[in-house]
DNA sequence: AGATTCGTTTTTATCTATAATTTTGAACCT
DNA sequence: AGGTTCAAAATTATAGATAAAAACGAATCT
C-alpha cells in the first residue's frame, strides 16, 4: 500500500501515524487534530490531511466530514472479521505461490520462524510472523492481493498490540513448522488448510478484551 | 468506502473521477493533472489531491511522487487476480450471510436478477449484477469485507466497460438463478460453490483484450 | 435547578501563493 | 546527424491565509 520509497512528507506522516496507531500509542477513538500533527512534523496541514485520507482507506482512522478524523475503534467482531478475511486471502495467495516456492525460500522462512520463536517481546514476534507469511505468499505474484493482505496484517497487529494479554511468551510456532513441512512435501492442500486454521485461530485466543469500542 | 453522504468537495471529485475511470471515459495511463480538474470542478487543487489519494487506495490511479498520478492500467493478469479475490471473499461473505437470508431478500434478489436480464446495455446490466451480489452478501454483517468486495467490483466493472466485447446482449443469468435456488433449499455449500465458479468465470470470458497495459 | 439560546472559540475545509522538481526544447558540441 | 547540456516552462508539492462549520460555555429564561 504505502510505497516504501514514498519520500514525500505525506508519506512520512502516513507511516509515522500508522505505526503509532498499530502500536497502540494512540487509543481508539482519539480525535486527531490536523494542526497538532502539522506542527509536530514541522509541516503544514495539507500533507497531514492527505495522510489522513490514506489511513482512512487503510481502515486505521474513520473520518466524519467537518468533524475531523478519529482513530478507528474495533471490537471482537472486527477481529474475527479480519481473521476470516486473512484466512481466505492467504489461502488463495498460498495456492498460487506454492508452485513457485523454492527450497531456498522455505529455508529462509524456517530461519525467520526461529527468529520469531526467540523473540523477546510481542513486537519483534509480530515482525517475524509477518515476515514469515510475506515470504511464503509473495511468490504468488498477485500485487493487489498482497497489499490487501498487508492491510489486514496491520489490523491484526493492532489487535495483538492492544494489550489483550499482558504477559507474553514467545510460542514455538507449531503451525508454521507444519505449513513448511507440507510445502516441502508438495502437499499444498494440507499447507492451505493448516494456514487457514492458523490464521483464524488468532481471532479466538483466550483472554480477549471485548470492550475496545469507544462509547459513542 | 467513499461514504455516500460525504458532501465535501473532495467527496464529489472522488466520486466523479471514480465514475469516469470505471466507465472507461479516461483511458488507462492517462496523466491526471490536478490543476485541470481543479478548474473543471471549480475548486482549488487541494481537494483534488485528496481525491487522488482516495482513488489511489482504491487502486483506480497510481501515483509517482513528484510526477503526479495516472489512471491505473490493468492487464489480463490483474483481471484474473480480481476475479479470484472476489471469488474467495464473496464466498466468505455468503457463508456468513446465508443463515440470515430471508425469503423476502431472496425474492428481491430474484426481481433484481430479472431487471438485469432485461437490461438494455452493459451499464445497466452491471448495475443490476452488482445490486444482486450486494443484496445476498450484505446480511453477513461484516463491513470491512463488504467494502473490500465493493472495491473489487469496481475493478471488475472497469474491465467489463473496457470494451473487450463490442456488441453485448443481456444474458439470462443462469448462475444467479442457481445460487438463489440453492439458498432457498438451504444448500449453502452448493450456493457457495456456484458463486465461486460464477465470479471466476468473469475473468475467463472469451474475446479478451490482452493489451490494456500502457506501454511504459 | 434544568434546559435553552446565543455568542465566542476552536477546528476543519478550502483557497491563494510560493517553492521545488520534472519535463521540454533549443542550442551546442562531437 | 546524433547526442548532450543547459535553460525555460509546466507541473507537482507544500506553506500560509481565509472562510465556514462545529464545539463549547456562559448567560438567560422557565
TrEMBL record, chains A, B:
Keyword list, A-Z: DNA-binding, Transcription, Transcription regulation
Taxonomic superkingdom: Bacteria
GO molecular function, one term: DNA binding
Sequence ranges assigned to domain HTH gntR-type in this UniProt record: 7-74
InterPro entries xrefs: GntR_C, TF_FadR/GntR_C, Tscrpt_reg_HTH_GntR, WH-like_DNA-bd_sf, WH_DNA-bd_sf
Pfam family, one: FCD
PANTHER family: TRANSCRIPTIONAL REGULATOR, GNTR FAMILY, TRANSCRIPTIONAL REGULATORY PROTEIN
Name of the protein: GntR family transcriptional regulator
